[in-house]
Give the backbone structure.
Amino acid sequence: MTQSYPTILRRTLLSAFAALALGGAAVAPALAADKPDIIRIGSTAPGHLKFILQRHSGSLAKEFEKDGIKVEFIAFTNGGSEATTALATGAVEFIYTGNNPALRVAAAGADVKAIGLSSYVKENGSAIIVKTDSPIKSIDDLKGKKVAYLTGTVRHSTFAKALKSVGLMLADVESLNLAFDASGPALVRGDVDAVVESGDVAAKLVETGQARVILDASSHPEWSAPFLVSANGEFVRKYPDLVRRLLKVDIETARWADAHPDETIKIFVDETKSSEKSVRKTYRDNVFYQDPKVTPEALASLKSEEQFMADAKLLKGSVDYDKWIDSSYLDAAYKEVDAKQSN
């Protein structure tokens, strides 16, 4: 089941107020519980690939139903900052997000853990689009123009890199913080001059002839960095075995995708209403890059992205990687999956 973030947040706050009203004694049973009633999994909308596959197959629900634990999926429509805020405050237990929001919340010192990779697609999936009849031909032409994108996202960082490549900065454009359900119509109406979005989402306007691409960031693989699976720190400390089991399903989902490429693409396209042509372009040769292992290459890429964000003033503070990344649960999950597959 997928719910919106406001619904989850209201319920979390109401529960907290109820506990306070009843006094400390009301909190004790929850602290003593050996398992939660529910695990909430979040993702930036429309959803990362493994999030979509797990929701579709019910694999996580099946994993935890024997414990009487429900699983809920929450798609955050206002970007990674909304998702990481929910994670840090305990409104969700796990999230799939891009690198920018994950790095930002880690640098701020929030009690969150990076427990694996959501994906490490080696080409940047963002695009900058303008109206088909727009006089704008290149990134240089965006100086002084209105450009819409969600702040705090990978698109934000990609746009900053694109501007830097032609000697411009974010301060040289008028930025509007809009999700695509608002920025897309705004572009068609002419209220904004350009939109920065993921390629499969932007393709909705491009393929209908309402927009054209002035920059396909897939031509800049050096701009890519891994996406993360993050967990609430308190939940990790309290329920380490549940973290391992969730990552076990994550690994199995990644391997299932590689073994069933056409079905994987069909599920993703159907559930996200994305362009199949664009999705197949992202996952060239049916390679999905969903393995959650945090490799040395992935770590180096994250550190490089953090440095760019700091230089571009997209980040406050710095990331303590030894404190932030905890691969112990993933290592245990790999041992379980590999042992099962070898039998």
